[in-house]
Each structure stands twice: as structure tokens, then as C-alpha cells.
Design brief:
The complex is a heterodimer of chains A (about 325) and B (about 270).
Chain A (H helix, E strand, L loop, with lengths): L2 H10 L13 H12 L5 H7 L7 H22 L5 E4 L2 E4 L2 E4 L1 H11 L4 H17 L3 H5 L2 H18 L11 H17 L9 H11 L4 H14 L4 H6 L1 H10 L4 E6 L8 H5 L18 E3 L9 H5 L5 E5 L7
Antiparallel strand pairs in A: 1-2, 2-3, 4-5, 4-6
Helix pairs in contact in A: 4-10, 5-9, 8-11, 10-11
Chain B lengths: L9 H25 L3 H5 L13 H7 L5 H5 L5 E3 L11 E3 L14 H5 L18 E5 L13 E3 L9 E2 L10 E2 L5 E3 L4 H4 L2 H10 L17 E6 L7 E6 L8 H5 L8 E5 L7
Antiparallel strand pairs in B: 1-2, 3-10, 4-7, 5-6, 8-9
Classes of the chains: A mainly alpha (about 325), B alpha+beta (about 270).
Chain lengths: ~325, ~270
């Protein structure tokens, strides 16, 4: 299975498998073997690595970007400066059309006609996210992502204090929902998904003022706090799949280098989509350098957390690694 | 089918439970989204849509719920529907009694702003729009029919609505509350009808930008005199086939409470 095919299947819900010895390239095998035989990673090593508090560089940059983008819509409207008109679903940046790929797709499926403006807007945004990583939209722009991150902190506290138990769902359900909403748009002729999309709801609430639709967003957040961690983004949101597909072939991604990795798993614990970091488990990496899959939102939490700098952002048009 | 069921090991049990949970959550989300159908089939509140809106079903399909039409409207006539409109969430509407579309932008800015063609780009002029059709809803309340004049602020001191008062300011809409009236007989619905105003400009040889295409081919509303026993002059507003349903008459009507004249959305001269 090639990298992009495997990445696509994982995006749709496939659980990554441990590679067989034959699938692991000799160079990687050597490192796996070296670490195992020489017992390189001990408790002391890990303790020492974690003595230094981790950075929040990427998280801070990301939160700032997310806030600036969303506030730009608000400020542009309130000051009437026509810098960024519209909402996240569709907008004009200094007069130039932009359209959210998922919203545009829903409209095309429901309406079955495409105006040139929408073609321009969709193509612009497609190229933009193709260059910027696809699901980068989720963690760097989507306003629901930010509030969900805060809800996640509460959720993790409750789990830590054993007040609630972890509840998981099958990731494949997002694919089922994706297909269902696409079919519903075609069959009913309405953009059914927009009715429950917290991204559109929050974006419009910020710009045009709050409404009762925010109750639905609140309900989703409560579900994520008390029932299942990051449930909407992990198991439900079709926007994630749309941008994930764009991210399949994006040059912007996080890469993993096996050399210094202590395999202690901090990155997987913080990750919204931990299956993409499966390669960081001891013995799982098939190569010395591995590109992280398309479902990765390029949020950079793992890059910030990794005490050995084994995870880094990379901008490359071909292959993997350095 | 073998009669004996193999006992599932704990891992299989866990996966099975996860699978069932996922089925429930998936159905729940799809079910919730489909609740959006309810306001549509109930269809009580047929919203007045901005100029150029396609037929309701196509309009809701094509609208990307971005509000660019809201942002360009010079009189802020357009609002976005909330989740109680179901699939109509985020779609633009006009609450004419609070603020009607008076075409002060001249160029149908909302139509130009629409990225998807939910507001069709096939129309260019105010008289080509078909938002609805005005109807005298409460004739007994109408000042003109009662033979009464009107003095003061049309909608009271607290009314936030704006209209373009062409002879005062060609470019900026003004608050209705800042422009009180003193009328022998109330003719506000005719006086402020954007179609009638445009026809007046055309007859004076001054269509906007000198563009003859701006001139509406048909009248939209007029006052018709009728006699009663009291000998007073009575006038009845008569909606004509040039009415596009912009809602200005509904907005400016100075009677207390609901307007005497209202716009039925989606009706046109052809369908009334």
C-alpha cells in the first residue's frame, strides 16, 4: 500500500496496523533493533527529557491565526472596510472570491448548478489549502476547533479525576456521515449539513450576532466535555474529510524522524487524531522519516510537545523525510 | 445459522459496543439534521427574500449562508435566519415592517454580492425583481381610506428604519424618524414606493445614471378616490401589476401595530 492510499484509508476510518518485519525498511529496522538491544530508552532518559517544560510555540501561533482570521471577518463588517466580507462558508478577501470547500460542495450537490463566482472561490480556496496542508483549515481557522480545545481540557480533567470514563466511537462513522450528507443534499435539494454545522453557526454568530443556533453548539461541547473527547471533529464533521482529501497531496505536513524518539507517547496523548501518530509507537515506523497522514490537522501540538524534536513541520513536494 | 453463539472475548465485546454506540450517534446526528425539514413543511412563515431570490427550494439549495448580501445592503434590510428556520438557517430574509428594501443601492448590490446565484444575476434593475406582492390587509385601518391625513413621524420616535429621501440626500439613506410628515391625506405608501419614485424620475427625464433601462415599465401602486356619504375625500391604495414586493409600503405605513398594507412573499403580479 502506498503512502497516499494508506493515508486515505486511515482518513476514512481504517485503524493503522503494525507493519510486518518485511515492510520495515532496513535503515529503520536497524534503529528499531539498536534501541531494543541497547535499551537506549530508560525511565531515567524519559524523566530527564520531560524535566524541561514543553513549548507552546505552534499552539500560540495557531490560536493567534485563528482569532485573527475570524476577527478579520467581524472587524471588516463592523468598520465597513470590505477587507474580508461574508462568513467562513463563503467570502470575499479584498474583493476576491473565496468559498469553503465543504459548503461549496454541499451547495453544488443540492443546487446542481455552479456559478462562475463559486468556481473561482472554490478553486482559490482549494489551491490555498493544497499548499497549506488541507486539514490545516480545521485547527488554524475553524472557530469550533478552538472552543472544542477548551472543552477538551475540561474533559481531560474530568477523566483524570475519574469522574467520567473515556467513551470512543468508530472513526468510520465520519465517512458514513460524509456520504449520507452528500446524498441528502442531492436527494432533498437542501444543504442539510449546514443546519448542524457548528463551523458555519459560530462564524455567522461572530459576524452577524448570536442566535439560538448556538444552543446546538453548546450541546455539542457538553457532549465532548462529559461523554466523548473531541467527538464532533473526530467522528462526525464532514468538513474534516473534505479538507483531509486536499491534505493527501499537500506539501505541508508534519514528519516523524525515528532516530531520537523515546516512544513515550506524549504526542499521541495530545493529538486530536492520534491514529496518524501510530508510527511513533515503538517498532511501528517503516522508515527513518515518515510523513504524518492526511487526517493530521497540522495543529503542531505534537511538534511543541516532542522532547526529542522527532516531529517537525516540513514543506516538500515529493516523498517523505529529509 | 449455528445455534451456538460463540462467546465474544473482551476486546471483541468492546469493539461491538463501540460499533453500536457509533450507529446510535450517527443516526442521532442525521436525525437531528433532518429536523430542519419541519419548519419547511410547516411553511407558516414564508420569508420575504432579498431581490433576485430564486424559487424558495432552489434558493435554499443555492444559498451558501455567508451573509455577503447582508453586508452590502445600505439600509441593512437583510437579516440571516436562525436555526428555527431549519434548512433555511443562515439564509437571508427581509423583515419589511422593520426595514424594507428601498433599492437605495440602485444597482441591486445584494444580487451582485451573492457568490452562488441564489440571488439570480439575471436581473439588473429594481423593477425586474419579484420578491412578493403588496396587499391591503387592514383597509379599515388605512388613513387614506378613512379620509385622514397624517402628521408627525411615520413610525414613531423609536423607529430605526431608514429610507432614501432623494431630494434631501441622494447618497445616504436617512432615518424615517428624522423626517416627519404633514399630509392632508396620507399617501405614504405611494409617496415612498421605489418603483413610483423611479417612474417619477424617468418622467422628469432623470433616470439614475441617465440609464433608460432603469425605468419601470409599469406602475406599482396608486391612490384612487372614492366617494362616501360624509363628503370627505377618501382615497384607496390600489396595488398595480408593477409591484415587486419590496415592502417599503409595509414599512412606512403609519398606522399603529401591523401595517394596513402588507407584502405577501413569493406572490407576483402574475400569480395574484
Amino acid at each position: 500500500m502506498n503512502r497516499i492510499g494508506e493515508s486515505f484509508l486511515q482518513l476514512l476510518g481504517k485503524t493503522p496496523k503494525k507493519p510486518t518485519v518485511e515492510e520495515i525498511l532496513p535503515a529503520a529496522q536497524e534503529i528499531h533493533y539498536y534501541k531494543k538491544v541497547n535499551k537506549v530508552i530508560t525511565r531515567e532518559v524519559i524523566m530527564k527529557l520531560h524535566a524541561v517544560p514543553h513549548k507552546n510555540t505552534w499552539r500560540n501561533r495557531r490560536w493567534l491565526t485563528l482569532l485573527v482570521v475570524n476577527l478579520l471577518f467581524v472587524v471588516s463588517y463592523y468598520l465597513d472596510i470590505q477587507l474580508l466580507e461574508g462568513a467562513l462558508t463563503a467570502s470575499r478577501f479584498m474583493g476576491f472570491h473565496m468559498a469553503d470547500l465543504n459548503s461549496a460542495l454541499q451547495v453544488m450537490l443540492a443546487f446542481k448548478e455552479v456559478l462562475i463566482n463559486l468556481v473561482i472561490g472554490t478553486t482559490t480556496v482549494l489551491i490555498m489549502w493544497l499548499l497549506l496542508g488541507g486539514r490545516t483549515f480545521c485547527s488554524w481557522v475553524c472557530p469550533y476547533h478552538l472552543v472544542a480545545e477548551w472543552a477538551e481540557k475540561l474533559h481531560l480533567k474530568l477523566v483524570e479525576k475519574k469522574i467520567i470514563k473515556r467513551v470512543t466511537f468508530h472513526r468510520g462513522m465520519r465517512t458514513v456521515l460524509y456520504v449520507t450528507f452528500a446524498l441528502l443534499a442531492v436527494v432533498t435539494g437542501y444543504t442539510v449539513f449546514e443546519t448542524i454545522s457548528p463551523t458555519g453557526i459560530i462564524s455567522r454568530a461572530l459576524i452577524y450576532g448570536p442566535g439560538i443556533a448556538l444552543v446546538w453548539v453548546g450541546f455539542l461541547l457538553l457532549f465532548e466535555i462529559f461523554v466523548s473527547r473531541r467527538a464532533w471533529c473526530r467522528y462526525a464533521c464532514p468538513i474534516g474529510i473534505t479538507y483531509g482529501i486536499v491534505g493527501l497531496v499537500s506539501p505541508l505536513r508534519v514528519t516523524y524522524n525515528i532516530q531520537d524518539c523515546a516512544h513515550e507517547g506524549d504526542c499521541r496523548k495530545a493529538c486530536l487524531v492520534p491514529h496518524v501518530l501510530d508510527v511513533t509507537i515503538k517498532g511501528r515506523s517503516r522508515d527513518v522519516n515518515m510523513a504524518i497522514g492526511a487526517d493530521c490537522t497540522r495543529c503542531g501540538l505534537c511538534v511543541d510537545l516532542c522532547p526529542t524534536d522527532s516531529l517537525n513541520f516540513e514543506y516538500r513536494f515529493t516523498g517523505t523525510g529529509k | 445459522m449455528s445455534g451456538k453463539k460463540r462467546k465474544l472475548n473482551p476486546r471483541e465485546q468492546k469493539l461491538r459496543r463501540e460499533f453500536l454506540r457509533s450507529v446510535v450517534l450517527t443516526s442521532g446526528l442525521v436525525g437531528t439534521s433532518l429536523l430542519g425539514f419541519i419548519p419547511l413543511v410547516k411553511g407558516e412563515q414564508r420569508r420575504l427574500r432579498p431581490p433576485g431570490a430564486l424559487a424558495e427550494q432552489a434558493f435554499l439549495a443555492a444559498c451558501i449562508k455567508c451573509g455577503q448580501c447582508v453586508q452590502v445592503c445600505p439600509v441593512q434590510a437583510i437579516g440571516l435566519a436562525d436555526i428555527d428556520d431549519g434548512f433555511g438557517i443562515g439564509a437571508p430574509f427581509i423583515g419589511a415592517r422593520a426595514q424594507a428594501c428601498d433599492f437605495s443601492c440602485d444597482g441591486l448590490q445584494c444580487v451582485l454580492a451573492c457568490p452562488t446565484g441564489a440571488l439570480t444575476h439575471e436581473i439588473n434593475y429594481s423593477h425586474e425583481t419579484r420578491m412578493g406582492f403588496a396587499r391591503l390587509d387592514r383597509p379599515a385601518a388605512c388613513f387614506a381610506i378613512r379620509g385622514e391625513g397624517f402628521k408627525g413621524q411615520a413610525r414613531g420616535a423609536d423607529f430605526d428604519g431608514k429610507l432614501r429621501y432623494d431630494d434631501i440626500d441622494r447618497w445616504n439613506p436617512l432615518y424615517v424618524r428624522d423626517n416627519p410628515y404633514d399630509l392632508e391625506i396620507c399617501d405614504l405608501c405611494v409617496r415612498h414606493c421605489p418603483i413610483e419614485i423611479r417612474i417619477g424620475q424617468c418622467e422628469a427625464g432623470k433616470p439614475p445614471s441617465g440609464d433608460q433601462n432603469q425605468c419601470p415599465p409599469r406602475h406599482a401602486i396608486k391612490l384612487e378616490a372614492f366617494e362616501t356619504v360624509d363628503g370627505k375625500a377618501h382615497m384607496r391604495p390600489l396595488v398595480l401589476d408593477g409591484c415587486v414586493g419590496c415592502g417599503v409600503c409595509e414599512m412606512i405605513c403609519p398606522v399603529e401595530g401591523d401595517s394596513a398594507i402588507v407584502v405577501d412573499s413569493r406572490k407576483t403580479a402574475e400569480t395574484v
